[in-house]
Structures are given as C-alpha cells and as structure tokens.
Amino acid sequence: MAWVLHVDLDQFLAAVEVLRHPELRGKPVVVGGDGDPTKRGVVSTASYEARVHGVRSGIPLRVAARRLPDAVFLPVDKDAYDSASADVMRTLKEFGVVEILGWDEAFVGVDHDQPEVTARRIQERVLAETRLECSVGIGQNKLQAKLATGFGKPAGIFRITHDTWFAVLGDRPTDALYGIGSKTAKRLAALGIETVRQLAHADPDRLGAALGPATGPWLVQIGRGRASARVSDTPHVVRSRSREMTFQQDLEDWDEVRAAVVELAHKVAADVSPDGRDVARMVVKVRYAPFFTSSHGRKTQRPTTDPHAMELSALAALEAFTDRRPVRLVGVRAEFVPDDQGSAGP
DNA sequence: TCTGGGGTCCTAGGACCC
DNA sequence: TCTGGGGTCCTAGGACCC
C-alpha cells in the first residue's frame, strides 16, 4: 500500500550549529539575523532549551534577547544549512520518491505495509549519516502526513489516516490545518466555523461565495483531510527571484531608497543570470516605518536577461510610489517569463 | 526594545477586445 | 435617452509557508 511520509528535521538550524560547536549542546541556542540580537531581525530557529523560555521562530531577536539574555545568538549561515540539507535529502532518496519542501523537510513516497518500519529506518539512517534527528509523519496523503509530524515531535513517528482524521484533528481550531493561517481562521470564525470538524461539514458554495471560488471548496476539502497523495521529485521551476533589505534606521531620504533599489536590482540580476531565463517583470516592495507594505511592478520592455533593463523597470516601478514617508524595508523581485509553453507543439 | 528574507498562489478590479 | 456578456491581460494586494 502507498503511503506518504513527511520527514522534518528537529530544530534544524540550531542542531546544525550544535554539531559545529559541540560545547553548545544543552544550551539555549538562537539562530537568526546576523547574530546580533540588538538589531532588527527575527528568530529563524531556537533550540528546545530556548523554546521553554518562550523563544521560538518568528519572534523579534530583541524580544528573544530580553526573554533569554544568556542565550547563544548565532547568525544564519545559509551555506552550512544548504550543505546539511543536501546530505539529508540524499539519504532520504534511498527510501523512495522525495519531494523537497525546504531546508529541513520533505515528503517521501513509499510502498510498504508497515510505514512505521520505514519511518524508523529513515530516522536511524539520517542520524547515522548526518547526526541530525528528525520526526516522521505518516498519512494517506500529503496533508495528513504533514500534520502528523507535529504530533511526533521531537524525534517521534505519528500516523494520521482517513479513519483517524477526525479523532485527531476534529476538535482542533481551523488554523491547525496547513494552508489556514490566522486571517482565514478569523474569517471562518465570522461564519461560525471554529473547528476542523465544522469546516468539514460547511457548504463549499457558501465558503466559495465568502472566500473565493477556488479557495472555498478547497478549504472544505482540507477540513475533511482530503488532499493530494502524489509525491513528485520533478525539480521545481522557480517563478521569481527577489532580494530585500531591512534598514537598521528607517530611510527618510528617498534618494537613498532609490539607491537601494538600484543596488538590489543589480543583485537580483546577478542572481538570475545563471538561470539564463528571460525576466518579464520587475516588482519593487516598500515597507513603511509603521510596517505597512506596498508594492508596484512594471513589465520589462521585452523579455530580457539584461541587468540594465531590469534596473530601468525597477526604477519605473519605484516611480509609482507617490507616498514618500520613511521606509524600513526595500525589496526588488524579478519575475520570469512563464515557462509553460516551452514544449508547445504546432 | 517590535515585527527577516525568500518564495508561492489566489483574488479582484479595470482595461481592452470581440 | 442607451449602455450585454465573455474572455484575457495587467496590476495590486492578501495570505500563507519555511
């Protein structure tokens, strides 16, 4: 029988750092930003020793430092995690088709009557190869597997099936589901839908009218635990590349904002150059000091790989910003020409 | 003492065309 | 003294995820 396994490394960034710095084992370790907790930035990963003090992913580094002044703060080291992640993914490929979701998680499609046996072997093999611990969720589709992992952490294994879906998740709030965040949960609550079970019994057309024709029926489906079970190892074709930067002090001078856009546009151009693909559109994002974000984009004159053309379109997009208040973040994104007619026949 | 950086997908409205 | 109804493209923004 076919099963979907979801493998998720435990406290991945912190675990990689502990491997490099064994003296940190057992200590509260916080990875985020450039490692300076007095600067603007957020926690990427906190070790379990830090989490018990309320320091978890996504909180501001400054808040983390206040809650846990004695924690070890480390910068995000992308190359180190890329390398560790590649080791893990290579190991997973021994067990089946692997669909990579990020640095520290992947689906593995297996055909096995005892998926727990495979899950245990995966844990052992990953630990032996990389000295990293992982949790494994087992499901009849990707949604069940992904959610199961959370019940297995740390270093455990958990299975969710069509038969156990409501027993495990029925009474949980809707935002326990992958794909429902705080905003959608609020909108659902306004419709009287608080739990996964209530969502499963909602009328798809009613939700469609309230939340969009595709989104509404899809929400009911995930409430019922129904989702795709197809694990695909087809390499993902990237749609866009972006760079952004948050300033330590808000920029009040828009000449500096303009200079930042030029710099970021050139970085993005360098990032996309190895892809060799044509860029169709450039988007500039501005986050104002009160944390309100706005974006404007402009098509490039024609599909292009030319950095100068990308800069020109980014600057044209910047012209669309008429509100010249102080700025805390500037971002530039290049969107590739859609790649779906590549093999179109006559 | 606020709130990163890199992505994806969906929705909605206006323009434009037939 | 009237102004439908689709389809598609472009743009802005929302929401979500790791």
From TrEMBL:
InterPro entries: DNA/RNA_pol_sf (IPR043502), DNA_pol_Y-fam_lit_finger_sf (IPR036775), DNA_pol_Y-fam_little_finger (IPR017961), DNA_polymerase-Y (IPR050116), DNApol_IV (IPR022880), Rev_trsase/Diguanyl_cyclase (IPR043128), UmuC (IPR001126)
GO molecular-function term, one example from the UniProt record: DNA-directed DNA polymerase activity
GO process terms (BP): DNA repair; error-prone translesion synthesis; SOS response
Protein EC: 2.7.7.7
Domain named UmuC: residues: 4-181
Annotated Pfam families: IMS, IMS_C
Annotated Gene Ontology cellular component terms: cytosol
Alphabetically ordered keywords of this record: Nucleotidyltransferase, Transferase
Reactions the enzyme catalyzes: DNA(n) + a 2'-deoxyribonucleoside 5'-triphosphate = DNA(n+1) + diphosphate
Family indicated by similarity: Belongs to the DNA polymerase type-Y family.
Function (record text): Poorly processive, error-prone DNA polymerase involved in untargeted mutagenesis. Copies undamaged DNA at stalled replication forks, which arise in vivo from mismatched or misaligned primer ends. These misaligned primers can be extended by PolIV. Exhibits no 3'-5' exonuclease (proofreading) activity. May be involved in translesional synthesis, in conjunction with the beta clamp from PolIII.
Record protein name field: DNA polymerase IV
The organism of origin for this protein: Phytoactinopolyspora alkaliphila
